[in-house]
Design a protein that fits this description.
It is a single chain. By secondary structure, the protein is mainly beta. 5% of the residues lie in helices and 40% in strands. The chain is built from 1 helix and 10 strands; from the N terminus they run βββαβββββββ. A 7-stranded mixed beta sheet has the order 6-7-8-9-4-3-10. A 3-stranded antiparallel beta sheet has the order 1-2-5, with no helix packed on it. The longest helix has 7 residues.
């Protein structure tokens, strides 16, 4: 089982199945919603995704038929879902465990932040130094 939570831990979740392949989305709405260069996401089947603390979730319809769910206390983006979809779009920054899934691609590169370079070969540090 894989678990995750928001920053304040009022919203937690458990995943009983497989997490889909990791995709890095550079679209304008993901960048703005996360305040970052891109959002790393993967799909999880609805029946394998259990949310605890659902009463602390709020949602925002960022594009027609797509709702982004976030903690009303700390603001952590937890997942998104399109209407009538059989899966959620998990925001991987909220994971507490290794998703055990491969990275496969960057999407919406046409909307990528001008100041970010994919494969920039920047140093990788384990913490802020």
């Amino acid at each position: 089982m894989i678990s995750g939570s928001c920053l304040c831990e009022k919203v937690t979740y458990k995943i009983t199945g497989r997490i889909g392949d990791i995709i890095h989305c550079h679209c304008k709405t993901c960048r703005k919603a996360h305040g970052a260069a891109f959002s790393s996401v993967a799909s999880v089947q609805n029946d394998e995704f259990e949310v605890i603390g659902r009463e602390h979730l709020q949602s925002f319809e960022s594009s027609q038929g797509k709702h982004r769910y976030f903690c009303s206390n700390c603001g952590t983006q937890v997942y998104a879902q399109r209407e009538n979809a059989e899966h959620v779009i998990l925001r991987l920054g909220s994971l507490d465990d290794d998703p055990l899934s491969p990275e496969t691609k960057h999407i919406w590169v046409s909307e990528k932040a001008s100041w970010y370079s994919i494969n920039s070969h920047l140093p990788e540090m384990d913490k802020f130094e």
